[in-house]
Amino acid sequence: MVKKKQESTKKLKIFTKKTKIKVVKVKKEPKGIFKPIFAIGRYFKGAWIELKQVRWPNRKAAWGLTLAVILFTAFFFTLIVLLDAGFKELFNIILK
To answer: How far apart are the first and last CA of the chain?
Structure first.
């Protein structure tokens, strides 16, 4: 009598965008020195999946967002410089 070795796998249910359920088999975790190598591989695989789901802006939207960042940066830079100069003068008046 020959016994077949059963592969120990888990089944995960993954919900996709359109609320369909996708069943994925997950193999047993590696042991020893291979564990960090497989973890790094899973990290990059997950990152690639996430990058494919990103909705990237078009050129016009990207330039608009860039301009908004530059304007906010200039505004807060000016605000901080004026506050710094004001406090410096205030402390000079107080210390005299």
So the answer is: 101
State the pairing for strand pair 21-27/9-15.
antiparallel
Residue 32 reports pLDDT greater than 60: yes
Beta strands per DSSP E along the chain = 9-15, 21-27
**Residue entry with tokens 């078009």:** 58
Contact residues for 7 (Cβ-Cβ < 8 A; gap 6+): 27, 28
Pairwise CA distance, residues 52 & 21, whole Å: 19
pTM over 0.90? The answer is no
Can you tell me the distance from the alpha carbon of 34 to that of 27, in angstroms, rounded to the nearest whole number? 14
For 76, list phi and psi in degrees, rounded to 5: -70, -30
Query: Measured between alpha carbons, how far is 41 from 55 in angstroms, rounded to an integer?
Result: 24
Do residues 23 and 11 touch, judged by C-beta distance below 8 A?
A: yes
